[in-house]
Structures are given as C-alpha cells and as structure tokens.
## 1
Amino acid sequence: MRQPVPNMSPEAWAEYRAGLRKRRWRQFLQMVASHTGLITMSVVFIFPLYLVFVVSVMSFDQASNRDLWPNPFIWHNYVEVFTAVPFLKWTLNTLFVSVMTMIGTVVSSVPPAYVLSHLQWKGRQVTFVIILSTMMLPGQVTMIPVYVIFSKLHWIPSFLPLIVPSFFAGAFSIFLLRQFFVSIPEEITDAGRIDGCNELQLMLRIIIPLVKPAIAAVGLFSFLGAWNDFFGPLLYLVENQDLWTLGIGLNAFRGLHHVDTSMMMTASALFMLPVIIIFFFSQKVFIEGVTLTGVKG
Amino acid sequence: MTSIASALVPPRKRGASAPATKPAKLKTPWLFIFFCMSPWLFGFLGFTVYPMGASLYESFTKFNLIDSPQWIGLDNYHRMFFEDPDFWKALWNTVWISAISIPLRIGFAIFTAWLLTTAKRGRSIYRTIFFIPSMVPTVAATMVFTVIFNPAFGTINMLLQKIGVKNPPYWFMDPSWSKWGLIILGLWGIGDTMLIFLAGLLDVPRSLYEAASLEGANGWQQFRYITVPLMTPVIFFSAVTGVIGSFQYFTQAYVASSQVNDFSHSMYFYATHIYYAAFQSYEMGYAAALAWVLLVITLICTLVMLRTQKRWVHYPNGSLFK
Amino acid sequence: MRKNRLTASLLATALLASGFIGATSEAQAAERKVVVWSPFNGANLDMWNASLKRIEAVNPGLTIESVGQVDMEKSLAAINAGTGPDISVANGVGNVGWFCGTGAWQPLNKFIADKKVGINLVKTFTPAANSGTVSRGVRCALPFSSEVFGFYYNKDLLKAAGFKGAPKTTTQLLTMAKKLTTFDAEGNIVRAGYVPWAGYSDNDMGSMFLGVMFGTKWFNSKGQSTFATDPAWKKAFAWQKKFIADVYGHGDFAAGSRALTKFIAAAGDFWGGNNDFIKGRVAMMAHADWMSMMWCDPEGWNLNPCKTPAVNFGTAPLPVEPSIYKTNYGSGIVGANTMGISKGSKNVKDAWIVLKGLATDQELALNWSNANGDPASLLKSRDNNPGLKYPAFYKTFYNISRHARSGYHPLLNTGEHLEETGLQSLMSAWQANSVPDISAGLKDLANRVNQMIARNG
C-alpha cells in the first residue's frame, strides 16, 4: 500500500491503516445492511405476486389450506378459466378499447404539445395553465352530464364513450409530451422555419422523430390506463355482458357460477401478466415518463 | 438525432443568449395553431366546461334521467348535510384515509427511494421490483389482497400466527380493520410515487453531502438538514396530488366491498356515495350536488396547502414554475 | 309534351299515394308490436317464449319480440334512456314500490278495472301474490310464478344427532343448532348448526328471515316504518345475539361473532358443489324454493328427477317464536317475478294484452312449477294436482305460498328498497358487534326510511 503522505511516522502509519480498516468495515456493514433491506423489501413487494401465480395453479382444497407451494400443479386452471367464464371475450374487449384509446390519445395529444412548446403565440401560457388546472379537477363534477350526453346519444352500452373522448386530447398526455418537447431546443424549429418548412412539416418530419421516446411513453401510459380502467367500463359497459372488460369481469367473479379462489387467482394472473410483460420490455420509457411528470414542472 | 440537429449549433439550454441569426419576424400561424389545439379545445368545451355548468345547474334540481330536471333550490344541499348519515360516514371515511395514508405513503416512498440510493449495484433490478406492483391493474390487486388477507384461508394471517400473533385481525372482513387493509394495498403500490421521490433524491447535489461530512455531520444529520429540506418541493407536489386523488378514491374500495359484502360501510367513501346516488338510485341532481361539494372541499384544501407552502417548502430555483 | 307531363304527375301522385298508404299500414302493423325483456334464459326462456307464441296465436296481428337475459337493472337503465321495452320483468318484489312511485312502470289500475280486458285480481291470484304488486293503491305490475322462502335441513345430520324433524320454534332451533355445531382443537367452527347472519347465503334476506321468525311489521297503515315501534324487531335482534353467543361463543357474543366471521370467510363458492349446505358444513339453512334445484343437481340445476340429490335435504316452514306459533307457523316470505308496462311504451293497449296473457297462462305456470319448484301465483293453478312430476318437498313451499299470513311486506317508494338494505346493514353491524344500542339503530333507520318516503312523494 502506498502512503498518502510520504515518510509517515510508524505511529501515524498504523493509525492511518486502522482508520482505513474501520472505514472499510463500516462500508461493508453498510453494504450488508443496504442489501438486506433491499432484499427484504423486494420479498415484501413480490410476495403477493408470487402468491397469485402459485395459488393460480392450486386446487381449491389446497388453496383453502394456505399452502405455499402447489402440489400438484393444476395447470388445467389456466384452460378452465376460459370455459368457466367468457375470459377470451373480456380480454379481446379490453385489448380493443386499450389500443383504440392509445391511438386516439397519441394522435390528438402530439399537435397541442408541439404548439404549446415550439410556437410563440398570445394566450399560450394561459392555455397551458388551463390545461394544468383541468388535471386537478375531480372527475365526479363532470361525470354526470357527460353520462347524460352519452345516454342521449344512445351510446350506452358501447365502447364509444370510452374511446371517443381519448381523441380529444387528455390534459395529462399533453402535459407529458410538452415537458419532453420543451427539451428540444428552439433552434431546430427556428432553423427549419428559415429553411422554408411550414409548421406542419416541421411538426411531422422534424420534431416527431426526435420525441419518439415521449410518444412511446404517452402511448404506453394511455394503453395501460385503459387496460387497468375500471370506472369507465363500470359506467358504460356493464349493462351488456358481451362488452365486459377484464376489470368488470374479474370483479363480478364471485357472482358467476363454478368459480373459486384458485380460479380467481388464475384470472387475476392472466389480467396482470400483459402489464408485467409490457413493462419488462419498456422499462426505460416508463421510468422516464413518470419522472418527467413528477419533478420538472 | 437527425442531420439537421447535428449540423446546427450544439443544443443549448433554453433561455440562453439569442442565436447569431434571428429568423425574420413571422406571422403567428393561427390556422395551424387552431387546427392542432382543436381536439383539446372541443374536448375542453364539451367534456369539461359544459358538464361543469350543467352539473352545477343539476345540483339544484331533482333529476332522475327519464324526466327533465325539476328545480328544487337548495334541497339537495340541505338533505346532504342534515338528512343523510351516509354522507357523513362517507366523508369521515375519506378524511380518515387521507389523513393516515398520505403521510404514510410519502414516508414509505422516501424510505424505499432512499433504500434504492444505497444500492451501488443492481439498483435497476430492485427499482423494477419495487415499481411493478404499482402498474398492476387495481381490480386484480384488490382481489388478490382480499384473498391473501382472508381471515380463514389467507396466507397473511397464517404467517402472522406463525410468528406468534394470537388473534390476527380479520382485515377486510372486520369493519375496524378494513381500511387498514386498503392502506396496506396502497402502500404495496407505492412504486410510481417512489420514482418521483427517487428522482428528487438524486437531484440533491452530491457536493452538499460531501461538504457536510467534512464538517462532521453524520448520516442522520445530513438527511435531516440537507435531504429533507431539498425534497420539500417533491413532498409538496405529492401531498397535493395525494389529497386530490384520495378524495376520488373509488375502485379499490368498491371492489373490496363487493368481495366481502361490506354492509357496515367501513369502505364507503365519498366517491362511492356519489356513484350510488347517480347510478343505483338514479338521483342525478343529488349526485351533482355531492360532486360540487367535493370540488369545493378539494379546492379549499389545495388553496390552504398552496398558501402555507412558503413556510416549509424550499425551492432551489426560487419558484414553482421555471 | 303536355300528355307526358300529365302522365308523369299522375304516376307521381299514384306512387306517392301508394307510398303513403303503404306507410300508414306499415305504421299500423308496426304499432301492434310489443317488446318484452325478461331475465330468463335457457329452458325457462323457452317456456316463456312458448307462452308468448300462444298469445300471438290468440291475437292475430300482434307480434311480440322477446329478449332474454336482461335483468331489471338493465331494463331500468334503458327505460331511463328512452330505449326501454314495452314490458320489463323483475326477479322479485322488493323494488315494486320504487317502480310504481317513479312511474318506471305505468299504473295498471284502469286496465284491471276495465270491463272488457280487465282481471279480477282477488279471484285470479293468491293474496300473497297480490300483495307484491301494489304500492299505495297504485298497481303497476302483475305477478308471475312465485318465490317462496322456507327452511332446509340436512336429514342425515339431524338424524345422527337424534332429531326427528325440523325445528318448529326459535327455541328448538337454538337447541338443535347447538347440538349440531362442532369445533376443532383450536376453537374454530367445523360445522355450524344454523347461521343467522346477514349476507351468509349470498343474498339480502337475512334480516327478512329474522322478521318472519318473529312476526315483525315493516310499515303501519299510514305507510310509516315500524322498525322502532314494533317491539318484535328488538326481540328478534336480541335473539340473534343470544344465538350467536350460545351456539358459537360458549356464552360470549364477541367470541361467537368472531368465530362465525372466520367460519363464513372459509366457505367455498356458494353456487355449485362446494356450497356449505351440500358439503355438510352447515346443517340447516333458510333459502328460496328454487334452491332445491341446486341441492338436487349442483352442476345442471335439474329438478327432475331428484333421485340422487347431492345432499339429503328436507324442507319445512321457517321456525317461529313460540308465542306466535299458532298464528304464524307455516307462513313465509312469498315474492314473485313481477312484470310491468314500462314508461314510454308506445303500445300500451297491446302491452296489457300480453301482460295479462302471461300472468294468467295456466300451461306456463304448470310447466314453470315443474321445472323450477316455484309454486304458481295463480289461485286456481294446476300445480296442486297430484299428477305433477316433482317430489314431495314442493308441497312445503306450495303450502307456505297459500298460508294466510304469507306474503311480502308493504311496498313503498323507498328508492332501491332502502328499508331492506338499511336493515341488512344494521344487522351486519349488529352481528359484528359494532352496534352498542340496537334500539337507537332501529330508530335511526326508521327515520331515514320515513324521510326517503316523504322525499319521494
């Protein structure tokens, strides 16, 4: 080992080495503590998910016995859930609504985000503040007249009340996109204008390719928001069983015949699985999106 | 990055000095702006402005969806405050769960975020694990929790008994414990809030910590005097969104009460009351009145928080908006 | 040229006229259409549709469109939206006060009294059935079939414990339940004798069963709630508390309540082969007549033949409090399917014809009773005929449906049967040991119900 200061006295050298040892020992303890804490917390977070997947392949009797490991593995539960309840139909319905919502949100939110970030116009700040404040509005205040509108249009029950509003640009998506757009420097658009591009070309050809991660984030969030949504389908789809999404179906499980605890877990597992899989493939997008909305603005 | 970007002056922070060549004074392309904003604008007018006005009007009427609304003045409001014990129960439950779960969530989010910062390697794996539960569909999460917290065959009580708890609570099946079950469910899904706090924690300049340890401050003192004050903007943001969100708390409570037949209304919240008034009894006018009272309460809470933020929130850049 | 123009205009006029005539006759033909929505499906729907066909046959020019699997909640939403059917059917009687009061179902009094197309209600339907279709003098529904609630007991378990038959009084019920209940080493309930618990049988009837056992009154002649003024209610809840304490808590109510909560939490799916009664986890249970279908055949719900039921069950009327035994034993809750003409129906006259036809169809009533075990609501029905297919247990329910004191409680516009849901909530809180003073709770509930009635006008 090299001495930090040349020609140290033997006492100073010993003291230094003791101090180093103490520090290393403390760092080691800290690392152990940190990993213990992290692993404990991980177990806590994973445990319910572990139980879902494990109980989903248990028989009802075993599930009642609170066993922690299936024996035997009743893989058949995953087949039976499709025959006991119209699970496939629920899944397809949920998929349809989620995809359409995603498309609607992305298509309608990108232009306002662009216009609110890369163009100067009178009233821009006011509009942005209005958009922000609508994010804080409790949904219940607008819920009833909106329901009445859809009711008078005879759109209940159907997917339309869930899909059509997404084509009208939600505040959250505009906000998220705009935060990202703002990080693209003005110089690019200015240069483009000098070059003679009109705004539409600027938006489509230049800016959009640059903000693909943000668009992916918005698309992902709106897809997942629709996939997980319960209240919307509860209001607009519940009267027609053929239109049910997974959320309503799962909630109604107890009232349906021939289902029990382990099958409830099977259904829950299948409902959760797409989300978990999508998340694994797009982690960065997620995390950037969440942090963007939280801190920077 | 496109070729245009690389061919230009390197990207600078916004607000930096003006570029060498200023573009010619352009006319504001109003048509384009209108075209882009129109989806939002029409949505705003049709799904926000009009309904707000309509629901305010409806709150003074008796309206059951078949017949047209009948004006009854302040009757709905009178009934709400003087003739509806469910209203007070719902309000109490909502206030209770907000007061308990918002600080708990903030504390737990800070704790888990801080725990993540102590990880030198593998942080992203842990982060993923902590985050996934918050992405899971709430209906599924709630159903799973009612099963594993089942007093008879739930794993949680079995584990509690194994570590010596003689009479574990009945959680969702016990009116005095059901809200705690909901709170635990909410804490399990702390991931998204945690990420925000993680970003906030990582934003604190390392130099401050180094300077403090040079002066002899230990870890706890550093946390108390550096980390927490600099995190107050995030805490504030989280508290405000928490209040707004918890007053609209619905899905978990509704799903959990359907699983266990919550007749004693221990999981009956403000949003639940509005839902039942509107879509079970078809008393739309009353529901509209309830919704407006909710809006007023939320506004008051938000304003109070905004007013008092000066006392405890430190903004590094001096203001909320950059 | 002129001739052409003339021809053209003549042709045009002819076309127009024929179109007009065609449209009118089309409109006339379209007028004689009645849309019926019902919650029935499968074999029940087939019987229902057959009856509708018979009505069409007797009324030439009338077409009936029938849609099944639509419960009243959906029908109501459609009625509210203006797209409802002419006739809608509810599975029970509980909301009739609400439907009558809000006008969701139109008043039928003038049709009933009509000399040509009317019905003599007293001569056509049982008293129990008639009590379930009227609210404050407004009759907005006709009954169809019935739903009779009685008492089921496990013959094998009772015999093994030395009992000859079903309990007849609440005192006997407690004694028998105590003997039939078993515990495990940790004090958990393994088998329950009888579970007087709101929400246990996956229905809202717990408080209503208590009411029948004690002969309680729900409303007085002025249409006010009697929860607080009728002492039988307080007696009933006190009995429930004593029952839980004695049978499940060794004298301690809180312990008994906890033990029962855990026992119920461990129950399997109510519908199907894992049902507590089928598995012998509970020895006696109050429920509806059609549950016989599930005891006989948990998977397929076939009532006939019931040679090898999943559980050896016996039927009886609900036990009653000893002091009212002479007058009340043998009676029970009798509901019915109720059907009315929706608000906004465009063809009320023909809807009435269809409604009357359905309610008075003897063949439909007989087939329905055979298939479902529900006694008919028709007074002179053919289902007391020994030529019927079903086993002896049907007799129990048939007799209950004819008992003088059977029926439902008076129906008022309490929104979505607030008197029932409110009572159920109170009972749930009471049994969970969350209500210190039941009198206060009953008084509070009575006030709320009265307020709601007053508000609904």
Note: The CA atoms of residues 52 and 265 of chain A lie 5 Å apart.
## 2
Amino acid sequence: MTLTTAQLQINHAQCQRSGERLFAPISLSMNSGELAVIAGPNGSGKTTLLEAIAGLSLLACGSRLYKEVADLNLWLRHSHYLGHKLGNKANLSCAENLQFVAHVNEIEIDIKRIEEVLSNAGLAGYEFQHASDLSAGQKKRLALSRLLLLNKTFWLLDEPFVNLDHAGCDWLYQIIENHINQGGCVILTAHDQKKIHDLANHHITLVSAQEVE
Amino acid sequence: MKFWALFKRDVLVSWRKKSNIYQPLVFQLLIVTMFPLGLGAGAQTLAKIAPAVVWILALLSTLITLENIFKDDYEDGSLDIYVLSGMNLPLATLSKATAHWLTTGIPVIIFAPVIGVLMHLPSQSYGVLMLSLLLATPIFSLLGTVGSALIMNIKNGGMLLSVLIMPLLAPVLIFGAGAVLETTLGNSAFGHLMLLLGCSVLSLTLSPLAAAAAIKINLE
C-alpha cells in the first residue's frame, strides 16, 4: 500500500433519524497520525454520525472504507468507540470492568497491566472499588482507560472532555497527542476545547441537510 | 474466550445483585401462601390445582426477570462494548441466556418442590415436576433474550415484553403443567415431556438468531 492511501475513507456519509436526513453529506479521509474533530450544534447528529462510523449503526448513505475495504470486522478490530454511555458495569470493580473489556476483545492481560493502566488514568488504588462508587469524572477516566488498555489504532470519542476536571482534560489531551504521535488516529466530537481544535488535522462541521438544500 | 468472558461477567453481576436470584423465589412464596387463604379449602382442593399453580408461578416469576437481560447492558453502554468487539451476536445472546438460566432458572427448579409441598402436590409428582421445569426453564431464558432485545430501548417495556412472549410460552405451560397433572392421576408423563423437549430444542435453535436480529434493529 502506498503512503498516499488513506487509512480511513468516509465518502458522502449521511445519517438519518426517524426518516429525516440529519446533516449534509460529509467526507473524510484520514491517514495515520491524524486527528479529526466533529463540531456542530446540539442535535446536529454528531453522536449519530460517530456511532455510524464506529459500526454500531448503519450510515443512511455513503460508505466507510478502512484500508480500502468495507469489511466491518476488520474495522472493529482496529477501532474503539467510547460514547456517552460509558459502558462500566456498576457492580463490578474497576479491575473486573477492564478485564471484561480485554477478554471480549481477546487480549490477555494480568493484574499488573491493569494497575498500570489505572494508575495512568489517575485511578491508582481504585482497582477493587466498584464502578458505582466512583465520581462522574472517575467513571469517565475508567472508561477512557480502556483506550490505553486495548491500544487500537482508531479512537472514536464522543464528547470525551465532558465531566473531566482540569487535570483530567490535560491528561486526556496528552494521551490523544501521544496516540497521534505514535501513528494512531482519533475522531472526536467537542465543543469548546480550543487546544484540541488547534491540534486537529480535520475539522468537520455538521450543517443540517435542509439548510444546504 | 469472548463468550466465556461475557458469561462469567453476567453471572458475577447477577450474583452481586442478588435480587435477580431471590426476587422470583420471594414472589412465588408470597403468592402461594395466598391460595389456602383465598380458597379457604383443605388439602384436597389445593392438590387438585397444584400442578397448574406450581407451573404458573414458575413461569410468572421468571417472566419478571426477563426484561433486564439486555436492558441493563443497553442502558449502561456495555452492550456497545461487546457488539463492537465483533462478537458473533447469536452466540453472544446464547451466552446471555445461559447466564440468565443459571442465575434464575436453576433456583426456580430447586425451589419448585417447596411450592409443591405448600400446595400439597402428591408425592409421586415431584420427579416429573423438576424434570419438566428443567426442560422448560431454558425456554423461558431463551425467549426472554428475544423479548428483552426487542424492548431494550423502551422505557417501562416490561409489560410489552410480557404481551410479546406470553403467547409463545402458552404451549410450554400446557405441556409442562400437563405432564405434572398426568403423574398426579397416575399416568405416564412421557408424551408431555417429549413435547417440552421439542419446544426446548426449537427455541434453542431459533431464539439466538431472533435475539441477534432484534439487537441489530435496536442499534440502528
């Protein structure tokens, strides 16, 4: 594969909600080491678009090509989606939550690796705490720590900065920057994060389909 | 390994939650104590209706637990995690059903003789009672995954779930309660049990596919 070939290619993608097209078609082509930020007003379909890119739902039209093929399973193996619903089981401990995520993604891990990931996420010492006992920000950190644990190429993050304190935002910014520098790709939705907008290679602003017509 | 991980997690979550396990049993116990009070009759009247009562209680008490099979996972987002892991969905729903059966079906089977005793069920019927429930409780769990997957994004969908799968469970009740009734009359229950086994196999083959399709519909 030549260097000019994009890793991820999204062509004229549109999503719909109850039969109506949400936004004008968007296209995006990402190479390794790039960051794309999706912006748009509330209700413009940012989450819907991200879910469709992730493979959780279907694009109403358009296509998603990963390494030039539309193979969903190949794409799922190399991407991780983190949405508004964090996916932590309330009555499992932090370590058990991470263990489950690793096992369904067929990654072997030991407790050392879990401790390492949790302490990186600022949750050192919380290994055996139930997820329900964490604060909203800590729950978010636990969910974000999955990114480090699974270490997939593509990160798809829906409003990742919500609920995080200043230190948390800085930490997240840092891991996103590291990931990009290591050749990973990140697509995220964000509102007022100037720092992340400055870092982005691609800016996508969703405009409603009706406005364009 | 994926399915084992999902199964293990579900059992652990149920075990920690406890209410999943004892709620059906308490429900059965509360209702069965109402029968002698309401009927105001002796052991003979109770024994007559015992097969039906024991069976209906097992069915209804399982029914109230079905809603959460997928709803919890949908609401906290962990459904996304295993769907996006590229897991084979029919097999994933099978693993959910197995975990549900282990934490709800098995306690119901073990508890059934207690309800039987309270209803003065004749002593020759207990073996067939437990055997019929052993064949039928997997059907409850399997059809439950279909129903639960259909209603997971509906608030207060429990009633809809009951309406959806009750008709499907009617034949199971007929054969199951029928089997126990035959033994109280001193007849063989073989025919009824074979029909129950047939229902079991049918739901084992079809419900994982239906449940997986329902998940896909709801995510789109």
Note: The interface with chain B takes residues 54-58, 72-73, 76-77, 79-81, 83-92, 96, 99-101, 103-106 of chain A (CB under 8 Å).
